[in-house]
Amino acid sequence: MGNGLNIKLKGDKVIEHIPSIKDKALRINLNDNIYGTFAEIGAGQETVRHFFRAGASSGTIAKAMSAYDKDFSDAIYGVEDDGRYVTESRLKKMLTHEVKLIEQRLDREKHPNKMFFSYANTVATIDFAKQFKGHGWVGIKYQVEPEEEYNEIILHIRFKETDARLQQETLGILGVNLIYGAFYKYNDPKKLLRYLYDHLDKDQLEIDTINFSGPRFASVDNRLMSLQLVKNGMTDAVMFSPEGKNILPAAVLYKKNILALRGSYRPVTKVNMDMYRRSLEMFTAENKVDKENTYVIFEITLSNLRSEGEIDERDFMDRAELLCSLGQTVMISNFQEYYRVVEYFSSFTKARMGLAMGVNNLVDIFDEKYYRHLSGGILEAFGKLFYRDMKVYLYPMEENGEIITSQNLKVHPRMKELYKFFAYNGKVIDITDYERENLKIFSREILKMIANGETGWEAMLPEGTADLIKKHHLFGYDPNKVLENV
Asked: How far is it, in rounded angstroms, from Cα 374 to Cα 47?
């Protein structure tokens, strides 16, 4: 780990040489026009150390500092409203303050060709008791051309190593990768993202949020960048707000009651929104569930995004646009099994949790094949799934004229007694107040109608959704096909 040359292979063929951390730092140092500051709080001056050691650093480093003392830090960057130091707000203040100082203190006439930058991090490494592994915010604000508007890359990390010294080393390597990528890979953000793990392993570090901004990233959709984090195995789940902004799960889910709805949402239908409204009413009627402290999440699994083995990014964006337009928070995860979703949420909150789903989803949960990799099998999974009074809110389905609910659905004969245990002990609750007409709506049929240029699907979607599909030609909508069918 660190300064060796890595080689990526495809079969026996060398497809890419990865420069060492020293070579990356040296290339930055030898570029006469890259000049800026390093401000690192919480884990030592781990990134700038690589630049000092690489040589020729005087042409790159205008200043390096660590404001470890909280009073010093507050005096320099201001006091945070919440009194915390390892936050995105703190990092942004650090970057803005340091860039402002560069512009004030360095004469542009004397440095006409300089591309200024400020790299910063604010980090908490593992605690003495080793109960909290640590996390941090890392970012760079920089120019690609002299006097150009500044670009910004900001990311949130979680340490996975259980030794503070190793975490410091990991942070230093990540910092070099970020600075190198910012200047030499900015024209391909997806590659820049992957290169952040040069000389690092996924079991050392998790990147769970990243945002690009500025003139060089004007065309970058940060939701697609979020998708890359999950797709590349850099994190298990990412979230973004109704405004389309990437948000940090740990920040928004902390101590919240959580209601999650999993689906393909291809497209989102009246069934989905009715399930959302009814389950939310029932969830917030539970004891100890305060509606004001409740977060609703529409979750899409990575397996639901795959089309013929590959993730269709256009298709992903179509679904995201519709859910965001309906004011929903979206989570993309690689959790195929429901119990993993509950485990994930449990790392942020000890409050109440609920899952809303249809009958077919519940039947799948009782399929043993999904739990063969667990030593305790389905019993282990259910112990995790129904941990701390978690409840399932079940939306019915209609089959051959019969309404299927928790009372008459059919699971595998071996699972009957297990199912009864949970269903009859208040763990599975039927949604009874529903629109029967909605039970005839199936998203796959709507999708087929849209692709074939048929009409009539519009009435099966939430208000305004059909207009968006037509306006932006989502899900393969083609007005010419519609005209052909008239």
From this structure: 40
Q: What H or E segment, with its residue span, contains residue 192?
A: helix 189-195
Topology classification of domain 251-440: Rossmann fold (3.40.50)
The structural domains of the chain, with segments of one domain joined by +, span: 6-220, 251-440, 443-485
Mean pLDDT of 53-77: 93
Query: Beta partners for 153?
Result: 140, 212
Please report which residue ranges of 240-347 form alpha helices under DSSP H: 249-253, 270-284, 302-305, 313-325, 338-346
Residues in CB range of 325: below 8 A, 6 or more apart: 464, 465, 468
- Are 462 and 268 in contact by the 8 Å Cβ rule? The answer is yes
Beta bridge partners of 332: 238, 300
- For residues 348 and 236, what is the distance between their CA atoms, to the nearest angstrom? 14
In this prediction, residues 378-389 reach a mean pLDDT of 86
d(CA 142, CA 99): 8
Q: Tell me phi and psi for residue 154, to 5 degrees.
A: -130, 130
What tokens were used for 306?
A: 């795959």
Give the CATH H-level superfamily of domain 6-220. Answer: CinA-like (3.90.950.20)
Q: Which amino acid is at 100?
A: K
The pLDDT score that the predictor gives to residue 422 is 86
pLDDT, mean over the chain? 91
Distance in angstroms (rounded) separating the CA atoms of residues 77 and 88? 13
Half-sphere exposure of 253 (CA within 13 A, CB side): 27
Select from 387, 381, 392 the least CA-distant residue to 347. Answer: 387
- 448 by DSSP, 3-state: which? helix
| Cα–Cα distance measured from residue 217 to residue 181, given in angstroms and rounded to the nearest whole number | 13
pTM of the predicted model as reported, rounded to 2 decimal places: 0.89
User: What are the Cα distances from residue 396, in Å, to 4, 114, 355, 373, 433?
Assistant: 58, 64, 14, 30, 10
Positive or negative, the Cα torsion across 469, 474, 477, 479? positive
In sequence order, what are the beta bridge partners of 137? 122, 156
